Protein 1
Amino acid sequence: MTSQQLVPALIIPFIAWRVYMRARRSIGRQPFKPARLQVSIVVFSLVVLGFAYFGLPHPITLAALAGGIAVSAALAWWGLHLTKFEITPEGKFYTPNTALGLAVSAMFVGRIIYRMITLPSVVEGSLTAPQPFQSPLTFFLFGLSAGYYIVYYIGVLIRSHKPAT
């Protein structure tokens, strides 16, 4: 197996596992674990900063990233209002709105799959390979997905200090 084959063979299963874990956290009652939420906020924020750094030479993609984050704030606020919080003898729990969380993630994952399918055909038909950080739609959908989870998790942390509804 060559290095060109090894990298996708390692990365694709990792991405699939992360997508599965993200979907699992969007379905059903979740235990309230502040440390996990805080780590997720930090990781998503760092990845957004990485995207922003690589998007600096391309103002349109940077604007798309910012637009996705702006739209995601409204979606996260709505998702937070649809979330059920409860305190039981076992501890604190929250139940996110399944449809909204899965839809936000599915849009970004769908875009990545689309790019993976179409990228080889684009490279074969052109003299120069497309640059990975020049797609405003990908940046917008990533900003939408990452921004949603950053704002949503911040909201869950804040709401956890209020009485359960």
Note: The chain has one domain: 3-159.
Protein 2
Amino acid sequence: MIEPSSFVSAFGDTPEFTASKFTTLHYEADTPTDITGGTPSSAVPVKNLFQTDAIALRMRLWASWGLRAPHVAVVNGATW
């Protein structure tokens, strides 16, 4: 358990945007595997944005979190 008043978080004030049209994207959301380049690759569907004439946009916002005080409790051997 964590005491909610001890948990703190902070976020950056300016998001960073980057765009690329020479990126390979993996279109599997549930169980994506690594893009290995083998034949046949087990990571499908994979598309290169250059081949599809598309542009990818990435947004990053820096975040940090932690505990102001060590208010964490651990219970071992509990039977409910």
Note: The mean pLDDT is 82.
Protein 3
Amino acid sequence: MVWGRMTVYDPRFIRRIEGTMDQHLYKEILREDLYETIEEYEMDITRVIFQHDGDPKHTAKSERKWLNEQPFDVLD
């Protein structure tokens, strides 16, 4: 399995996932790779709009809580 990112700049990052991704691994990826992307492109984090699909691991209570605590917007 792979996880990728897409920005207004380019869709060039892909992370290989060993095994099954669950909500905990997904949150780890967001903490590391999402913030790394924001820093790499020197984005204003308050202007970032994050989008993900409705997969259950993306909408778990712990994920929603974490995302709501971030300074960027999350697209419904």
Note: DSSP finds two helices and four strands in the chain.
Protein 4
Amino acid sequence: MDNKEAYNNWAFTYDTAENKTRDIEATALKNIFEHSDFKNILEIGCGTGKNTEWLLTKTHNLTGVDFSEAMLNKAKEKIKSGNVTFKKIDIRKEWEFEDNSFDLITCSLILEHIEDMDFVFRQASMKLTKNGLFYIGELHPFKQYLGSKARFETEKGTVVLDCYMHNISDFYKSARKNNLICVELLEWFDDDANANIPRLLTMVFKKI
């Protein structure tokens, strides 16, 4: 089962099954942008709309994209706002948006499935306005080192998705190549237990 088929299957239980990584990432996004507002937001990997509803309180124009039609259908069922447009897009290919058109791009729990991060950072930089922000929230590399991967349960057993290893330095390198600088890096732990390995890494980059 490839990742697209896996996410199409996962869509039916994604919102209801226990998922600490999903929930901590949603909390992290809200904490980071609690006091911010934006003109145009591009949400990469919007999935079932887990972050979309909240992001809509921060803008009057949001575009949510995902490569899973089933995930997008779930998002459309939940969110009826006229301020959001959903599109099926594979971010490994050219992003068909106008350059310099978004002041925030969010990318949630997606890059572990992307081998060529430079391409994604390049596309994000092209589509951001000057001083626009690029947020990423990812399973922490420390968790990946221990073998953690995106996975979900089905009646037939556990489905483990195809993932790529990205070190923290890899994010910096891709950003530097594409006119982006890191303005914030945070690590998020289960139950605020800082003595344990962090579950999530979030980074915010600014286009210069």
Note: The beta strands are 41-44, 62-66, 84-88, 102-108, 128-139, 151-154, 157-160, 180-188, 200-207.
